[in-house]
Every structure is written in C-alpha cells, then in structure tokens.
TrEMBL record:
<dbReference type="InterPro" id="IPR011990">
    <property type="entry name" value="TPR-like_helical_dom_sf"/>
</dbReference>
<dbReference type="InterPro" id="IPR018704">
    <property type="entry name" value="SecYEG/CpoB_TPR"/>
</dbReference>
<dbReference type="Pfam" id="PF09976">
    <property type="entry name" value="TPR_21"/>
</dbReference>
<keyword id="KW-0143">Chaperone</keyword>
<feature type="domain" description="Ancillary SecYEG translocon subunit/Cell division coordinator CpoB TPR">
    <location>
        <begin position="23"/>
        <end position="230"/>
    </location>
</feature>
<keyword id="KW-0812">Transmembrane</keyword>
<comment type="similarity">
    <text>Belongs to the YfgM family.</text>
</comment>
<keyword id="KW-0472">Membrane</keyword>
<keyword id="KW-1003">Cell membrane</keyword>
<keyword id="KW-1133">Transmembrane helix</keyword>
<feature type="transmembrane region" description="Helical">
    <location>
        <begin position="27"/>
        <end position="44"/>
    </location>
</feature>
<protein>
    <recommendedName>
        <fullName>Ancillary SecYEG translocon subunit</fullName>
    </recommendedName>
</protein>
<dbReference type="InterPro" id="IPR026039">
    <property type="entry name" value="YfgM"/>
</dbReference>
Length: 277
C-alpha cells in the first residue's frame, strides 16, 4: 500500500476550497432555485389547483340546476304555486352564480355561469339585467378571443333589444376573430336596420352572406333578412362534410365554442328577423 503524501492532500484540499470559493455562490443560487420551484409547485397544488376544483364543482351544480329549470319551464300547464317555486329557485341560482363570480371571477366557470344568468334574464324580459350581466362577462380576463367574441356579440344583441342601438353598434364595430365575422356582420345589419339605415343594413347582411358562402354554410334567417330588404341572394349549397365526433372537452379547451355558435344560430332562426329577439 502506497501512502499519499501529506502535501498532495493539502494541495487537493486547497484546490477544492478554491473551487468552492469560485462557484459556491452559483451552487447556493441553484439550490435555492430548485427549492423555490418545488415549494411553489406544492403551494399551487394546495391552493390554486384546489380552487379550480371548487369552481368546477360549483359550476357543475349550477349547470345541473339550470337544466332542471329549463325543463320545468317547458311545461305549458304550470300552476301559480309551481311558477312561484321555480321563480324562487331561479333567484337562488342567481345568488349562487354571483357567489361563484365573486370567488372565481377570472375563470371560464364564471364566464359560463354568467351566460346562464343572462339567458334566464333575457327569457324573463329583464333586458337591463341581461345587459349588465353580459357586460360583466366581457370584462372577464380570459385568454380566449373566441369566448370574448361570443360574450360581445350577445352583449350587443341584448343592448339592441333594449333599445341602445348606439351602444350595440360600438361593440359590433370592435375587432373580433375572423371565425365570428359572419355573425358580426349580421349583427351590424340588425343594428343598421333598427336605426333605419337600410343601405348600411343591406351592405352588412351581404357581407355576412359572402362570408358564409366562402364557408359553404347556409343561414336561413339571414336569407330572410336580405329578401325582406329586396336583396335576392343566390342560395348556398353546403358541401358534404365528414361527420366528426363532438368535442366534449370544457369550453376552456375551445371544444364547445363552435357548439355555442351553432346554438346561437339555431336560436337566431327562431327570433325576430331584424332585432334578434
């Protein structure tokens, strides 16, 4: 066995000490960074992830109760006692929606809940309430231009129905994603028609029709609006498309945005051709 000379050990120790002095601060910062990331992730899991779960569960309950109310109101033979009970349940639903928005205001769940509330208010002819609710929805800080556009279009339509044509026009003139251009132009046509600006209404409706033509998408109510103003349009023949499985992911994933647009179109077909109501 060969003994290592003491001076070699001293040299090695001195070399390690110099390296520690040179890189020690970087090593400490690296360790602190790793610890910060670890504890930050732990904090997120214990707080924000839990909050998201609570918001999701609350919205699910609201959605189920909304569906029950919708189904109940479809009964044409409701007696006064039942109507009063449904009105009380709707009032409680609104309170829970307001509580969800207050606690989780910048989430997609708050946005969805406000859409439900605005629909009920519109059905109850509470247009002032619907305008206020949809205004609140447009102010939610969501990183989704599509959801913001849906809220803006509904907001403008509520304002138009409530007689605020200038306010509706201001919103309709805001920039929106190209996927919503047909709906935006049709909305502009409705607003101009309400203002008795017929030439502008014809132009906007025609613009909407041309966008739909490019997409090979027919919209019967828009054709009626054009024809009522004396504009003959060439029918749009939709091209056959492959049937796809509907996306059942939450709205935040973008899967239900187009489902909502289709729902809006279906509702529009049952509304007044010029006011959207």
């Amino acid at each position: 066995m060969i003994d290592t000379p003491k001076n070699d050990n001293n040299f090695t120790d001195q070399k390690s000490l110099n390296a520690l002095k040179l890189h020690g601060e970087k090593i400490i910062y690296a360790v602190l960074l790793v610890l910060a990331v670890f504890f930050g992730w732990q904090y997120y899991q214990k707080n924000y992830a839990k909050i998201d779960t609570v918001a999701a569960d609350t919205y699910t309950s609201i959605s189920v109760r909304d569906e029950r109310l919708v189904q109940a109101y479809l009964n044409p033979q409701l007696d006064e006692a039942t109507k009063q009970a449904l009105a009380e349940e709707e009032k409680r639903l609104f309170g829970d929606i307001d509580a969800l928005v207050a606690a989780h205001g910048n989430t997609v769940y708050a946005w969805q809940a406000l859409m439900i509330k605005a629909r009920h208010q519109t059905n109850n002819n509470d247009l002032d309430g619907a305008v206020a609710t949809l205004s609140q929805a447009t102010s939610i800080n969501l990183d989704d231009d599509g959801l913001i556009a849906i809220a803006k279009i509904r907001h403008a339509r509520a304002m138009l129905a409530n007689g605020d044509t200038n306010g509706a026009l201001s919103i309709a003139n805001e920039a929106m994603p190209t996927a919503f251009e047909a709906s935006r132009q049709e909305l502009l046509g409705d607003i101009y028609h309400a203002k008795n600006e017929i030439d502008n209404a014809k132009s906007a409706y025609t613009n909407a029709w041309e966008v739909l033509r490019e997409r090979q998408e027919n919209r019967a109510v828009l054709a009626l609006k054009l024809q009522s103003l004396g504009v003959n349009v060439e029918p749009i023949e939709p091209t056959p498309s492959v049937v796809s499985i509907p996306n059942t992911q939450p709205v935040i994933e973008g899967g239900e945005i187009f489902e909502m647009i289709e729902h809006d179109s279906a509702v529009a077909d049952t509304q007044n051709p010029h006011t959207g109501n």
